[in-house]
Amino acid sequence: MDLAIVNSFSRLGYGSFGTIFVSEGRGGVVVKQVQDPANAAVLDKEHRDLKQLYEVVSAGGSPSFFSLPRPHGFFQDYWTFAREADLPRTFDIGLPPHAMYVMQRIWPVPATLTERIRDQFFPDRAKQLPFRPFLARLYLGKPQLRPTNPFFNSENFLLDAARIEQLQLPAGSIAAGMGQMLARINFRAGRDGRDIEFVLCGDPLNPLSQHPAYSCIDFNQMRPHNDNAGVIADSMASNDPYYPRSDSPHWNAFAAAYAAEAAGAGQAHLALQWARTYLRTEADYEEAAQQAELLKQAPPHPDWRLEETCALRRAIDLQEEVYYPSRLVASPGLVAGSSRRIIEHTCSTFPGMSGGAGVDVQTPWQLLFVHTRADSDFRRNNYGYSVHHPLFVKAYEREVLPRLLGTPPELLSSEMLRCLHGYLTANKDQLADEGVVHQVEERCKVGSGVY
Hints:
- The protein is of the alpha+beta class.
- Helix content is 37%, strand content 16%.
- It is built from 15 helices and 14 strands.
- It has a five-stranded antiparallel beta sheet with strand order 1-2-3-5-4. A four-stranded mixed beta sheet has the order 7-6-8-9.
- A hairpin with a 2-residue loop joins strand 12 and strand 13.
- Helix 11 packs antiparallel against helix 12.
């Protein structure tokens, strides 16, 4: 940790638990320090939680749209920090001698963008007044905020969905980034994500840059969810309105990224439980209520959730543009390039043929991915859905394997059964219904001689 360039601090804010200081030099760090030394252990835990979160999110595969502040260390007192920062013992930078932890500073919104925000959204009385640089919270869950209240404070500035669009910020990417980050917190770090914040800010690596950046901050209220989907759903519902709602044009981008990240983390079962709540619509509830009335049953509980098969199908529908290049073995043609969401390749499937099988021409009986759609130029930007994606595996187990048991043996060649055996073996950790899987494996054993 290179803190030698830190030369002074100023107090940014404080509360009953602690005080926040920010460095004024090029070091770009934030210090959180306890008011009461007896709370040092609590602060240490907060630092360890941030460190664990930073490590698992950074190891999540594709880069995160929202960055996290890098934790630099926990220190029992100021002088321990001063030695680590290589500061002279006689150099007092104004911090009390209490326990603290240090993390990377998230810089304010760039000046050119704050000027646009001021001109477009500040009340007239505040436009000519000086104001401190600020972070702006991103409220995609609010279509439009109420007019600014009389007690305007630029340091707590909020951007609703309408303002985000007016500033021509990438709302769809912001929504997908929220889904990606929340899922990594839920399914890679095992935390509920309670009270986290998503903010518009400056470039964490270059405070002089005029290009905006996006960060996720404030993790002190997160708790382990212990694989309880209800805890995850409750933390989402109780948070400030960062996440787009189901009637928002940005909902699909958020939900697709969330479900994809959950499944990619090997947590398809939790993603499914989440989908049962968050992919439910008002029309679904009304239909369930009408059905209960016809059957002379009690109306469904307000927390009623979708049936699992319906939720699974909707979760998969969200995935149609999500692709994991590491899972692709081959495509029908030359792979020209790939990314997490798009595969660009020459493809034998023409426009309008979406849903076709993606296979290697040498082994056409072995399904590798499902072709979901193509742009007008069918030689580029064809979208595929890997058959090894955890949500696809779960749907295959639920809807296909039971039907295979009723398929006449003469319709299943030995080569088909060998491929099926290989598929089940490759995805055995994601299959939950051991009874059905065992019966299908027995058919493979009899029909293909794979054992």
